[in-house]
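Record type: monomer structure entry
Structure origin: computed from sequence
Chain ID: A
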Amino acid sequence: MLALFLFSLVLGGSVLLLQLVLGAGGLSHDAPDGAHGGFGHAHHGGHEHASGLHLFSVRTLAAAVAFFGGAGWVSLRAGLPGAVALVVAAAVGAGALVGTAFLMRSMLRFEYDGTARIEGAVGLPARVYLAVPGNRRGLGKVQLTLQNRTVEYQAVSAHDDLPTGADVIVVDVVGPDTVEVVPTPTLPGEVDV
């Protein structure tokens, strides 16, 4: 029984250590059920998400085996009978499996896809960078802050001409790099500066 626990501890610990070393070098790949990426996250239509609990990935299984072995070894060293040590080791291993899966899912939520998606610009304030001709007669350019970065998009307006420096609001996406804007409404009594 002691040999089983020590073998499990060494095997699981070695796999975890190997994944740590490979992950530090950017070579780790832990992909359950067709998911791809460092933490076993899924890609669907270009969007990553952390839904579901992936219990059977290399990391979760390695953690379960390592904790099973460690808990069994400690139980035997504490003088528990072999059957009790086996039950303790199995419970700790199962806990490590589920705990590691929850940890990996939680870590995924901290990942951030920094790609600025133009659809996220709708409703945001912007400033005209290059005059926008009115009545959709041509293209101008606007700058806005999207996903914590300044981006520039081509812009059209169905309203009057919008001069450089005018404050506007993005109301629609009309192309892969083009938005429709309207002048920012002013409150009665408010003076434009």
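Annotation 1: The radius of gyration is 28 Å.
Annotation 2: The chain has two domains: 2-110, 118-183.
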